[in-house]
Amino acid sequence: MSSQVEQAGRILAAFEKSKSIDSFFGAVEQMEGVNLMGLGDTKERLAARRAAARMWLKILAAIDEHLDPKFDPEDVPETKVVPPPSGRIQPPPGVSPEAITDPRARAEYEAALKKNAEKIASYNFQTKLQRLNKRASTSAKRFLTTYYTPVHADQQELLSLLREEHLSTVRQGQIKALFKAE
Amino acid sequence: MSNCSSRPQPPAPYVPHAPASVTTTGPGGAGPAGAGGAGGAAGAGGTGGACGASTAPCPCATATITSQTVSTAALLSQTRLLLGVGEEVDLTYSLGAATWNATDGRLVSMGSSARFTAPPIGGGVTVTARDSAGCSATITFTIVEPNAVVQLRKPGGGIKHTQARPDVGIQTVPYLMPDTVSFYNVEWLEDEVFSTNTGVYALYPNNPTWRGHHPNASALGCSDKVIAGQGTKTNAVDNLYSGDHGDPAPFAAGSASWPIPWKYQVSAAAMGGTASPPKQFAIATQVVTLAAAASGDQALTITKAGAAGATTVNSATSTY
């Protein structure tokens, strides 16, 4: 169990450096595989539970930190950019900038290419992060409701972890709501 | 499918708070690690007893795997057994904690449940859950690869054209067929290809700038929107345009045609770190046509994978 949490921590740390969203999924996969049932010793189980819960909260906090509230899924990127005309010549979309002889048109085109490339990267990042958020939220909820109970001591531990990991108010509310009586 | 031979009752699933919706059978399991001591026995003992010689019902007979796709595309059932490459499905074993195996694809085991990710190649995949009592169940999926590209005009999009020039362009939204699965974990690329040109377009220099197609350099993704007859909507707008080499009128009737290879890959996120190798699955042909003069004007058309736009040489200048 601890190796899975540690591996998730390593992946999370790597994500914070590289911002590679594809690798971030691996942290959630590691945590989804955490199973405390095999731990017989109560003290060991409690420590493992706390470590795993903390890692789930770190993952959720990292997701929240990178989700763009202004992201518009309908504003999709273009496959390729239409270059500006050079006199009577209008090159087709996607040509190499070197094919454009007018320096001003070429500079304008290179800026547009860079902007679209950034949009593709950002769009891919945000759409994958949204999917990861959905998955991680569900799996974290499953973990917390499996291994924590509404009793005072459990809730105190959770509250302490929520404070320590600086989760957003919204996220804290969602987690606290898991244990409210219906 | 489940097996059933002489064996004792399977163990209980792990049930921390014993919610009413969970039925437990067999001996009690370990409780949760309750700091406040609220943990405890998980399920009551079951009826037990060996199968086979006994008249008691064999517990393995009820062993099943249920599935629910992660995709919530409105067009598709979430319990379907037909999955797109890279598609994910949540599985639940009816008798509690189990060891999971799949003949292909990826599995993340979570005890009585698991998440299965379909492999990047089409075919049949069987997933098996086996519990510690020897009961097991299987579920078989058929994995489907993209097999065609459908393009539609971008809603509200116009025609790119310069008055008195033989140029034409439209913006389209690509979709991946078939429409019976979701390809939300699929990324796609077009490949480079040179055009075959006649008429005015034969004046375009025979070089990559004017005859190439200039495909997207970065893989683009797909949404989880699946439309009947169109398939999975991609996350991109495709700019189609003839280009204009600036050759003087008159313009000889002719065409330029690019048979563009389309490739798909399953994303690195779905594959566990590295995207699958790109695989060609379709040819989407883009064609620009300039018709012969009629009534003092010439018709211009552009088509690709079902999308089409039309104007004439003398039409007013307009844009996408």
Structural notes for this entry:
- Helix content of chain A is 66%, strand content 0%.
- Chain A is mainly alpha-helical.
- In chain A, helix 2 (21-32) packs parallel to helix 4, helix 3 (42-66) packs antiparallel against helix 4 (103-147) and helix 3 packs across helix 5.
- The longest helix of chain A has 45 residues, at 103-147.
- Chain A is elongated, with a radius of gyration of 23 Å.
- The mean pLDDT of chain A is 92.
- Chain B is 2% helix and 37% strand.
- In chain B, strands 11, 12, 16, 17, 18 and 19 form a six-stranded antiparallel β-sheet that branches. In chain B, strands 9, 10, 13, 14 and 15 form a five-stranded antiparallel β-sheet that branches. Chain B has a four-stranded antiparallel β-sheet with strand order 1-3-6-5, with no helix packed on it.
- Mean pLDDT of chain B is 85; it is low at 5-50.
- In chain B, a hairpin with a 3-residue loop joins strand 13 (222-227) and strand 14.
- Chain B contains two helices and 19 strands.
What is the oligomeric state here?
A: heterodimer
State the major sheet of chain B.
Answer: 6 strands, antiparallel
Q: Main β-sheet of chain A: number of strands, strand sense, barrel status?
A: none
Mean model confidence by pLDDT of chain A: 92
Strand content of the residues of chain A, in percent?
under 5%
Largest interface: A-B, 63 and 59 residues
Which regions of chain A are unreliable across 5 or more consecutive residues at pLDDT < 50?
none
Order of helix and strand elements from N to C terminus of chain B: EEEEEEEEEEEEHEEEEHEEE
Principal-axis shape of chain B equals elongated
Distance between the termini of chain A: 32 Å
Quote the distance from N terminus to C terminus of chain B: 55 Å
List the uncertain runs of chain B: 5-50
> Could you give the order of the helices and strands of chain A?
HHHHHH
Give the total of beta strands of chain A: 0
User: Average pLDDT value of chain B?
Assistant: 85
Shape of chain A: elongated
**Rg of chain B, Å, rounded:** 29 Å
> What is the helix fraction of residues of chain B, given as a range?
under 10%
Mind telling me the C-alpha Rg of chain A? Answer: 23 Å
Content-based structural category of chain B: mainly beta
